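Our consortium's second objective concerns turning raw sequence data into structural hypotheses that experimental partners can test. To show how far this objective has progressed, the report includes one record in full. It was chosen at random from the queue rather than selected for favorable results. The single chain below, 317 residues long, was entered without modification.
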Amino acid sequence: MNNSLKVIKKVIKKSKKVAIFTHIDPDFDALGSSIALKCSLRLIGKMADVYIKDKLTFNQELIYKDEEIFNTKCQFNEYDLLISVDTPSISRLGDYGEGFSLHDNTIVVDHHENRGLIGKYNLVNTNSSSCAELVLKIIKSCKLGMNTNIASYIFSAISADTGSFQHTNVNSDTFLNAYELIKLGANTTFINERQYKSVSKKEVEFNKYFWNNIQIIKSCAFCLFSIDTLKQLKGSKADCEGFSARLNTLNKINYSFTIVEEKKGIYKVSLRSKAEFNVRLIAEKLGGGGHDCAAGATINAGDIQEAKNKVLSLILK
């Protein structure tokens, strides 16, 4: 059941100490939404913390390195309100999932189709281009704090989740919100330089491997990253972020995906597609979910070739 902003406002106003969570392997929307909400709550005198287990990527560190983020165990009973952002399922909260689901005062804020993570209160809108836009609504409705950093974080999140305003999830509200954030002081130059124009040496090596190991079958392009490959490149699954989207820019490619081996037998699949094609349905058949043109799943397989065949067979159908 979805709740109105008026109800969400009352719940947040009553709270004194808030813990904020987002999904494992957080993207810029997850981070920008979580950290912006934390900062906004702190500006009006509330105690607020963000919990994220995974390490940030190189580009994420450039933007959020000065922000306090906890990756420790959470003492859930110390908080009178828990908020989950950008996460549709309990499993996607990782180590924090069980504690969140057992707490008696929770809010779920998301723009994905829900896959089992239901809070006591919920603000879910699948028509929103990003979770950050919903967080902006909360900040405005609840009259939480706002400054240039918060505006920049939200802009960063919206920009990333819309592919710099190129994806099919972009609508008129997206541009209006970006316009408002810039008026509020969002430092777009700072964000764009660190988010899109800063490349590490490790990223160069990953890009070399990526472009040299693309495979194409019919209108589908894909690239595979085994554990051995990650070790050779001295990186992790976080360094493979964004490759499936790049594959989808290739001419005459309608579907694209990357598969990254997380550990033996477990593989993370990232899917993308052109506007006329739907990868969410494919991800759901694999036990995952997402948006029509951007989705993902985690699957079990004997090896990475078997994982590839599972995904490819569904696409070719």
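The partners drew two points from this record. Residues 24 and 212 are 29 Å apart (CA to CA). Residues 201-316 form a domain with the Diaminopimelate Epimerase; Chain A, domain 1 fold (CATH 3.10.310.30). Both points have been shared with the crystallography group to help prioritize constructs.
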